[in-house]
């Protein structure tokens, strides 16, 4: 089997591999932070950060007026105000996959390995966070998605790619808090 064929089937096998490592209590509902920490290994987030830096280097120069406003809401992982958890990170990954990484301007820049890595992170978060109630920051996350979908969609999607490091760093911080 050639490397190209293996990469084509990799996204299909990742969910099966992840399910094999998931404990039954992590699927019973709610947020299992210890499960998320164990399923998302350091090497996954480290590789995602490295590949995101490579993608950001390939992006066209940002226009000065668009750099003033941040798209991502201001969150932190260890403060009492604006605290973010695994549920919010799952919602952010869903927004990124739906509104940013699906844009043609962004998709052209992503390697198949990076797409598979993003899918793996998103799928892992969906497995370990199964809460029927929305996040308390649901409105802020939806507002961010609306900003991305407004005029100049491609430009805002590229800006969101530049800010994706924040999401990966929040995942990394939560991993180390729960270990």
TrEMBL record:
<dbReference type="InterPro" id="IPR009079">
    <property type="entry name" value="4_helix_cytokine-like_core"/>
</dbReference>
<keyword id="KW-0732">Signal</keyword>
<feature type="signal peptide">
    <location>
        <begin position="1"/>
        <end position="24"/>
    </location>
</feature>
<protein>
    <recommendedName>
        <fullName>Interleukin-26</fullName>
    </recommendedName>
</protein>
């Amino acid at each position: 089997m050639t490397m190209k064929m293996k990469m084509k089937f990799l996204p299909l096998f990742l969910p099966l591999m992840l399910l094999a490592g998931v404990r039954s209590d992590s699927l019973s509902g709610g947020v299992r932070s210890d499960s998320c920490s164990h399923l998302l290994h350091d090497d996954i987030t480290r590789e995602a950060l490295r590949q995101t830096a490579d993608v950001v280097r390939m992006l066209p120069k940002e226009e000065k007026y668009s750099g003033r406003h941040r798209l991502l809401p201001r969150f932190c992982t260890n403060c009492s105000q604006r605290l973010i958890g695994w549920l919010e990170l799952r919602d952010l990954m869903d927004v990124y996959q739906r509104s940013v990484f699906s844009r043609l301007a962004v998709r052209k820049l992503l390697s198949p390995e990076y797409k598979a890595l993003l899918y793996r992170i998103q799928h892992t978060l969906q497995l370990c966070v199964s809460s029927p109630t929305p996040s308390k920051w649901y409105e802020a996350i939806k507002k961010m998605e609306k900003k991305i979908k407004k005029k100049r969609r491609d430009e805002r999607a590229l800006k969101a790619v530049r800010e994706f490091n924040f999401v990966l760093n929040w995942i990394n911080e939560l991993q180390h808090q729960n270990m």
